[in-house]
Design brief:
Strand content: 15-25%
CATH architecture: 3-Layer(aba) Sandwich
CATH superfamily: Response regulator
Structural class: alpha/beta
Largest sheet: 5 strands, parallel
Helix content: 40-55%
CATH topology: Rossmann fold
Number of domains: 1
CATH class: Alpha Beta
Radius of gyration: 13 Å
Strand order of the largest sheet: 2-1-3-4-5
Distance between the termini: 11 Å
């Protein structure tokens, strides 16, 4: 099974970087969202196997989106991707059910290892 991933980040260049890394893994991009509201709507529609989630976004923060998504979809797998100075929000995200996190700026190998652990056979 090839994992289907929803990429959520307000920065287009970050979505592009994540899309490239997922392509190198051979994973499917289910969709992309640029804010927390879009993330919630798209998760409901697409039911991806995994969502990468930025925490600092317009309209609805990543924490708010995570709370809403995990409330409706407790099985949702979410990996938080956020800046190094966001330690407390990362801890909050893990408490809300995020399965892991990656600190920006990241390198592709770090992301591949983190995501690969989630779908290891």
């Amino acid at each position: 099974m090839v994992p289907r991933v929803l990429i959520v980040d307000d920065a287009a260049f970050m979505r592009h970087m994540i899309r490239k890394i997922l392509g190198e893994l051979g994973w499917e991009i289910a969709g992309e969202a640029a804010d927390g509201e879009q993330a919630c709507q798209m998760f409901d529609q697409l039911h991806p196997d995994l969502m990468t989630l930025d925490l600092i976004m317009p309209k609805k923060t990543g924490l708010e989106a995570l709370r809403d998504i995990r409330g409706k979809h407790p099985q949702a797998r979410v990996v938080v991707m956020t800046a190094v100075d966001q330690k407390q929000p990362v801890m909050d995200a893990l408490k809300l059910g995020a399965v892991d996190y990656v600190v920006k700026p990241f390198d592709s190998e770090q992301v591949k290892q983190t995501l690969g652990r989630l779908f290891a056979a």
